[in-house]
Amino acid sequence: xxxxxxxxxxxxxxxxxxxxxxLRANGFEAVKRATLTVDAGQTLGLVGESGSGKSSIxxxxxxxxxxxxxxxxxxxxxxATLRKGFPPEIRQKIQAVFQDPYSxxxxxxxxxxxxxxxxxxxxxxTRVERHEKAVELLKLVKLPETHLHRYPNEFSGGQRxxxxxxxxxxxxxxxxxxxxxxxxxxxxxxxQIINLLYERRDALGISYLLIAHxxxxxxxxxxxxxxxxxxxIVEEGPADRVYHQPAHPYTQALLEAVxxxxxxxxxxxxxxxxxxxxxxxxxxxxxxxxxxxxxPHVMDRCTARMPPAFTVPDGGTAxxxxxxxxxxxxxxxxx
Amino acid sequence: MLLTLLFCAxxxxxxxxxxxxxxxxxxxLQGPSVEHWLGTDDLGRDxxxxxxxxxxxxxxxxxxxxxxxxxxGVPIGxxxxxxxxxxxxxxxxxxxxxxxxxxxxxxxxxxxxLGTGLHRAMFALGILYSTAxxxxxxxxxxxxxxxxxxxxxxxxxxxxxxxxxxxxxxxIAPPLIVQVTLTVGAVLLAEAGLSFIxxxxxxxxxxxxxMLNSAASFxxxxxxxAVPPGIAIVATVLAVNLLGDVxxxxxxxxxxxxxxxxxxxxxxxxxxxxxxxMAPHPDDALRVEGLEIxxxxxxxxxxxxxxxxxxRIAKGETLGLVGESGSGKTVTxxxLMGLIGTGVRxxxxxxxxxxxxxxxxxRRDLEKARGNDxxxxxxxxxxxxxxxxxxxxxIAEVLRIKQGLSHRAARDRTIELIDRVGxxxxxxxxxxYPHELSGGMAxxxxxxxxxxxxPKLLIADxxxxxxxxxxxxxxxxxxxxxxxxxxxxxxxxTHDLAxxxxxxxxxxxxxxxxIVETAPVDALFADPRHPYTAGLLSAMPHGQSGKPPLPxxxxxxxxxxxxxxxxxxxARCPYAIDACAKPVQMTGTDRLERCTRADELSLExxx
Amino acid sequence: xxxLIGQRLLAMVPLLLIVSVxxxxxxxxxxxxxxxxxxxxxxxxxxxxxxxxxxxxxQPFLTRYADWLLRAMxxxxxxxxxxxxxxxxxxxxxxxATLSLTFGSVLISITVGLAxxxxxxxxPGSWVDRTATFGATIGQAIPxxxxxxxxxxxxxxxxxxxxxxxxxxxxxxxMEWLRSITLPALALGLSTSxxxxxxxxxxxxxxxxxxxxxxxxxxxxxxxxxVLKHALKNALVPVVTVLSFQITVLLGGALIVEQVxxxxxxxxxxxxxxxxxxxxxxxGIVLILVLVVMLVQLATDILYGLIxxxxxxx
Lengths: 335, 607, 314
Known about the structure:
The complex is a heterotrimer of chains A (335), B (607) and C (314).
Chain A: E1 6-18, E2 24-38, E3 43-47, H1 54-61, E4 69-74, E5 77-78, H2 88-93, E6 94-97, H3 111-122, H4 127-140, H5 157-169, E7 175-179, H6 187-204, E8 207-212, H7 215-221, E9 224-229, E10 232-238, H8 239-244, H9 249-257, H10 263-273, H11 300-304, E11 310-311, E12 317-318
Helix pairs in contact in A: 3-4, 3-5, 4-5, 5-6
Chain B: H1 2-10, H2 12-15, H3 47-83, H4 85-100, H5 103-114, H6 118-146, H7 148-156, H8 160-196, H9 208-217, H10 227-255, E1 284-295, E2 303-314, E3 318-322, H11 329-336, E4 344-353, E5 356-357, H12 363-372, E6 374-377, H13 391-403, H14 407-420, H15 426-429, H16 439-451, E7 457-461, H17 469-486, E8 489-494, H18 497-503, E9 506-511, E10 514-520, H19 521-526, H20 531-539, E11 592-593
Parallel strand pairs in B: 3-8, 3-9, 6-7, 7-8
Antiparallel strand pairs in B: 1-2, 1-4, 4-5, 9-10, 10-11
Chain C: H1 2-28, H2 34-39, H3 45-55, H4 61-73, H5 87-122, H6 127-141, H7 144-158, H8 174-208, H9 211-218, H10 223-260, H11 266-276, H12 279-307
Organism (chain A): Aquicoccus porphyridii
Protein name (chain A): ABC transporter ATP-binding protein
Keywords (chain A): ATP-binding, Nucleotide-binding, Transport
């Protein structure tokens, strides 16, 4: 196998609270030594609830926050060491689509200005060439050419997200970071955007890092899925395996928490989970597994130290001692 | 007004009837007369002429000072806002120090260094007011930096200069213009003040401030002397400030271009009879009949957001009101409680809570019914609790006011309730402020407060949408438990069919302000009868497990005011026929649907 | 709460230092030589040197600053160049008049501003709102000293209800004290009343649209209770901020309004000092004014912490 497009190793992101006098004080580690791989032309789904650190990984990858440790190898270069911003050739290759379609487009620019902005920055195209490209980009996201001279506030959420995607495609990047691209949209328009993203990926050979809180949605277009909880990547593996046979208790809890569309089966499931004590105030364990406070399978050693990454039989890894009994234990543990 | 001022300033020599410096001691301190329209001052100079010459300073002075303030303040503000770090820290401390000295004192000190006189005074004021522009520019940069579109620009690879000029600077213009007008006004006032105490414009030169200075000395002899220059100052400052307001409003509009889409045919607000077949039943906790709600957006004609809305909820039952954004589900929930805001109007219908029509109650009775008979839980728990009171205080308040409990009893009951909704250490948590709780905990508190008076009906408006899915599950369980215990009926408003499947007994699906289908929960999922319901079910992320293309409903939800006159879903419906162009009524007995072809279609059930 | 006070007191230190550096270096930039002003044109070279040495002006700038700072920290602000009056005594003697005026106007503007702002904010667009907003706009356009002149000529000169000039210390006669500061405080408080009214109005309009107000109404609490208990406390949060800014405006305004009513406060002291280029006096006045401003801001910060639990350090 050739080298992956993106290889993130031991990445940490820490936010600092500034004290009154501007001196550095408390640090909050949003991402704790995360390791991820994205292969060319593939999609990695990154799933987690609020506060899991999934957006911090995106921000580090996009050069919006400096990592506090680890490496981000992209296309043969370590982005984590580029403290002074990324060089243009890297910038062109990594683009992004953000969650809120209402604030991600500059309200004072027309659609044409928005989608051609990357071309102005990175290419020496003439005005006519840029216009042609803009028309082409709009075609790619299935919007009529007549929209070029309108302003963002004239469009619905779904249409705005298409404009954002067109902008991301302008420079023919090799990786697009999709940070919750459909969670602000209505159910009936979500799938339109998912389908569009899927089509464009296959046609243009782009890789996606798809960040979302909904495992089911991510599963549709991901090749692999990584699950984050409180800064740790707790499970990683082929999309179907993670979705259908989750190995980590947190992934299982996440899947179970989504109500089924079958009321009878849902009733049965609720009856079954009754009596199990859970709370949304996790008792954080400093050294151990962050999920140990809520985990139904918690053991003594879970609170003593963070489990290493164990290999899961059908592919991928999970950081849980439940897998320790497996004969092929070795993992890529670095702890 | 401002034009007059400018005219006077430019052509003072030609307009004035007298030389402003010409003294005539015999005719000193006269009141208004035919010769001297506004009288004369202590040295017998014509007040009107001096007033007109003073306007020249009223134009020059603010222009100088404001120009200087903008030139100094804006670049530095942009720079430190963008650069941050130590530069920012040091400059901001200096600015804080300057603004903590009374402005006039700063000006006095600067004038002490530079000497008195108009231009020096204006230089002083320019430096002083540059702090305002500096802070403005900095704060705009700081807020804009966090905007997602600036983030996007950084991802595209735009350099700092480009981001600053292309993406941020455009947005600084509106507040900047307003600040300019405010500063012009402030400079006018300050110049008058400085001249008044004798360190601005020097006599005998005419400025409105120096005129007031001499007027003050002769207050007892000729009180009128103070009136003309004062009014000139007030009117000018007022005009400048009003100009600022107007500019701000018009600039605000410039950015937000109104939608130019072809307006769909507007429906008329004709009160209609409820068309949904629904007989009263003794078990009904709530019966809504023919509810219609209209909204008047700013400057536009009134449009309906909810029409022909009828449903019932039995005692102890949970009805799910499911719809996408813009379907009118939230405004329905608020409308039932009479909590609609300004610009919203209920134009038709009845809301029968047991035997009382809530819409027919006067304010006092409605306030009595709220809380006691019907209560509500809102979407965002962190904003639906008052941030300035402890959570225990907010529950106890309801118990005291609505139930007449003593402080003591209310406190005890509050802790009981907090314990009941599953919060550990209830007595301690009662003293917490809302921001100290997680979203899930805050929502538990909101639920405890809503149930504190054991209402017959609880309206829950997307109560789990703002929460993580694992927390959502716990809150849904809590609703179920509490319903078993308190026995209230529930109207559960949500956009998520899966959540509705979990919590509801029956579901009403809304689309474009009307219910399109109502059915018991099992029947709805096993056998959806409206194409929109079927479309929603198939579009759910869990509705299928395959790879794309995923099933979609084509098009998007039309906004209120742009609804078709016939079946509102027809344009997006794969089964639409010509007959769908006419308005459709709700039909059926056990379950209801609003579809011409309901009987002939067989639609995909949920997977 | 104690931590908050501690933090704020700590933050005052660098601010005071910066202010002292600024005033000290500004005054060092004075174009004319104060010694010339003192001894006049006819002073001999020797006299000149003697005065220079007495005033410490022959020392290098930094030495002078360090010396002055050290003494200032012990409460000694030096002596005036022109008479042997201690700066501290001179300022403290004039302070009560200026402070009475300022705090009188604070009281007036809080009362007027709050009442007008709440009334306007409850029903945006109503005639009450339009009247109050219009009044506030005009109020902000009126120069306080001119309003003072008008008040004086109507209520003091014509009607003779209040004295036109002068200040009676509180300790002499509380009644006369009140009469002597009523008109000046009214004149001074006008624009701040207007500023507060505008702020309260917009805060009120904003707060009334919040979810928690809707939730309180959904709970069946009466409109009166919702407004007075739930909305007002939240609307006060930005008002406190405005007040802490306005205090410098009011103190500065007091310097001018004092001139209208011939009150011997800090204003006339400052103007004289500037005219005479009395360096120690200017430095002392600025420093003490800043100290007053900071103490007031500390008080508003504490008030802010009291009504806004989010601002309390945890």
